[in-house]
Amino acid sequence: MIANLVQLAAEEKQNPLVPPGPELLVGTIAFAIVFFFFWKKLLPNINKVLEERRAAIEGGIEEADAMKVEAQSVLEQYKAQLAEARHEAARLRQEAQEQGAALIAEMRAEGQRQREEIIAAGHSQIEADRKAAASALRQDVGKLATELAGKLVGESLEDHARQSRVIDRFLDGLDDAASKAEAAR
Amino acid sequence: MSADQTQLAFDWSCRVMSDNGCGFPAPGLHSFLFKPIATVGGFEFNKVMLLALITTLLVVTFFTLAFGKAKVVPGKLQMIGEAGYDFVRRGIVYETLGKKEGEKFVPLMVSLFFFIWIMNIWSVIPLAQFPVSSIIAYPFVLAGIVYVVWVSLTFKRHGFVGFFKNVTGYDKELGPVLPLVMVIEFFSNLLVRPFTHAVRLFANMFAGHLMLVMFTVASWYLLNSWLIPAAGVSFIMTMVMILFELFVQAVQAYVFVLLACSYIQGALAEHH
């Protein structure tokens, strides 16, 4: 009971809203120390590190961006080269086709020419043969005719016939008639 | 001085329905009085002062360990420290003051937040079990610092006339009620504000401590005869109150810093 009374007496003096002086002092000192450390040392420290981290992250991002751009340009380049190669291949194929076609046409023309040459050669050969045969025949025919005529007449007409070329003229006339008839037909 | 070294020291034999006839040793203002642990040249050093200094030691030590050798790739401790720092910096200061204006108040606000929070947490730490901020002197000191900061800032920003316009909420459009508003605003801002700023923190921790002490004491006091279940309820309430107090401690630290920021914001605001 006495203790309680003393307690009450103490409480009368105690007002929880009136700050005791020593506590004010201790509180000020305690907080001042905390503030000082944060202000002067700890926060500058961590801010520097946070800044470095931010820079590092941004640097990384920039690097990645640069790589991306580079990859993009390489891809473009590759695509361009590929397109060029395709174009080139197409061009070469086209060219080859054209060349092939030209070659074939040339060969065909050459063949044609050779064929015509051979035919022409054949023709002229035949013509020459025919002419040779005709002239040989004519001579033989002239000779035979002269001999026959000499036998009929009784004397040799050979020299005279040779000189006068009568038979030849006659045969030429026959030839002409024959060629005329052929042309008319 | 009748108050005991710790407020929980009371008559152990005092139980409900015991025959020595003592009443419930309810907690009261005496729960906030401490015998000095040591007296140095007339200066009485008590438990609360010790806790305040340990608070300083804890905060400084923790953040020195966390930020002292800060690395770009943080360790665990640095990560926790950064989370707390970022919460105050981004979550409170930048939110209210903006990055540009707020930057130079970050150290003050970070210090305030962690200092107050740890002071509050002592409430539920075994052996300490006393929130330092339930002694009005500590909130007063902190509210006083904030007060000095925002008042001097208002002077610096707006000059002498601007200062009065700022703290009195001068606005011509109010017309005839302007004088009344100015008087009210003057009192509310310049005289009542630091008081409410400090008392808000103080009263929360004070009341919380009373509740904790009451349920703790009651748990023991009721532990007799058929009221033992009631003692159980009281004990459970103690646990619930501890959890609740943990929440209130953080919230009060947050509110104190948030208000400090909003006062500074008012000081920086252009008068319109």
Question: What do these coordinates show?
Answer:
- The complex is a heterodimer of chains A (185) and B (272).
- Chain A is built from four helices and no strands.
- Chain A is mostly helical and 185 residues long.
- Chain A has one domain (37-184).
- Chain A is rod-shaped, with a radius of gyration of 67 Å.
- In chain A, 8% of the residues are buried.
- Chain B is an all-alpha fold.
- Chain B has one domain (29-268).
- Chain B contains six helices and two strands, in the order E-E-H-H-H-H-H-H.
- Chain B has helices at 47-67, 76-102, 106-121, 137-168, 178-221, 228-268, and strands spanning 38-40, 43-45.
- In chain B, strand 1 and strand 2 form a beta hairpin.
- In chain B, helix 3 (106-121) packs antiparallel against helix 6 (228-268), helix 4 runs antiparallel to helix 5 (178-221) and helix 5 (178-221) runs antiparallel to helix 6.
- Mean pLDDT of chain B is 86; it is low at 1-9.
| Backbone structural class of chain A | mainly alpha
Mean pLDDT of chain B: 86
Q: What distance lies between the first and last C-alpha atoms of chain B, to the nearest angstrom? A: 56 Å
Radius of gyration of chain A: 67 Å
Largest interface: A-B, 37 and 50 residues
Most strands sheet of chain B: 2 strands, antiparallel
Query: What general form of chain A does the structure show?
Result: rod-shaped
Portion in strands of chain B: under 5%
Give the averaged pLDDT of chain A, no decimals: 84
Structural class of chain B: mainly alpha
The proportion of residues forming helix of chain B, as a percent range, comes to 55-70%
